[in-house]
Design brief:
The protein has 455 residues and is an alpha+beta fold. It has 2 domains: 206 residues, Cytochrome Bc1 Complex, Chain A, domain 1 (2-Layer Sandwich); 208 residues, 2-Layer Sandwich (Cytochrome Bc1 Complex, Chain A, domain 1). The chain has 17 helices and 12 strands.
Amino acid sequence: MEFHPQPQPGEARPWAFPAPDRGTLPNGLTVLRCHRPGQQVVAVEISLVAPLDAEPEGLDGVATIMARALSEGTDKRSAEEFAAELERCGATLDAHADHAGVRVSLEVPVSRLLKALGLLAEALRAPAFADSEIERLVRNRLDEIPHETANPGRRAAKELYKQLFPATLRISRPRLGTEETVSRIDSAAVRAFFDAHVRPATATAVVVGDLTDVDVDAVLAETLGDWSGDSGAPRPVPAITGDDRGRVVIVDRPGAVQTQLLIGRVGADRHDRVWPAQVLGTYCLGGTLTSRLDRVLREEKGYTYGVRAFGQVLRSTADGTGASLLGISGSVDTPNTGPALDDLWKVLRTLAAEGLTDAERDVAVQNLVGVAPLKYETAASVASTLADQVEQHLADDYQAQLYLRLAQTGTVEATAAVVNAFPQDRLVTVLVGDAAQIEEPVRALGIGEVTVVAG
């Protein structure tokens, strides 16, 4: 029997995160364009400087309702007509609000880019914000809140942010608003927020895809170029401060068979020179199935299906004074909550005492840098990362430089960064579980004062 010859790996080709071309339209809109041959589905990301801390007092969630309402009709089309036109283009349009601002995302076949960008421009230029649509979106949001509260992971995140940040900071409160604040939102509030913060002069459009036969300048001028607005005054950005004194908060869920854990503190953002080493060290600690936390808590002890360590940027400023959330998350069975936390702290103590190994560092570099070409195969992934860089006030070549720095970071540097990121006495631990079963074992660990709150 003759078999087809076994495929052989080809020679690795040099790769770098794609560099965009930057420009500005006459209306003040900043544009980043990135030609990606072969990507026939174009991704467009619009970054609007409408952060959550700009929401009026008592109206938490108005940015989210505004973002969702952008695709619910314009001055020319009803919500149904607008959706039908998007569908005819084969396009998808989505929007969400976060601490950095509102992000509007469009994906469309390149052959229909002009039409889809025209619809996007229409939504940004003259959204309808009809009373009936805003009322429906508010009802939908109110319906979501009980489900989020019932979700242990979401409940843990809500409690951690409340514990870490002072109540005066918007970041301490739920990103999408509470039942009390969302119920106050009406079309007038949404319109006022839109008028105050959405304008081309402070927005950035990222366009990524195969632009071979596209006159990008003409397309942008005909669509987003017609969007107008004043320049707007720069908003002061409040500094993010956090209280990460070591302590434990148990959110009581009587009868829970698992305990959701979320451990966190505030750290530096991507402007800090330690970020690449911190990314590498955090990946070794809990970034994958072969990390230390998984090796002990999952493989050796069988407490969990997986535990992850991560660093998430919260808000960055132009002067580099932003902050990130450094965290460890996972779930364990209720009877083993105490032992699992004990072993987790042992992993941190061992890491501080012995450091990472060269083998751990090498695997992390291979995984983080080696898979990057696959991670950025689609236009959408490239566009999203470029928009992140814009929101975090980073240089256009930041991501490309990050991979170079990761490859150059040594084991000692990565060890120091992850040990400093997760000091054993500066971690706020939130546990969502059955307090009657887990409180005493957790107290016995001595990892901080223990408080029980209602679930």
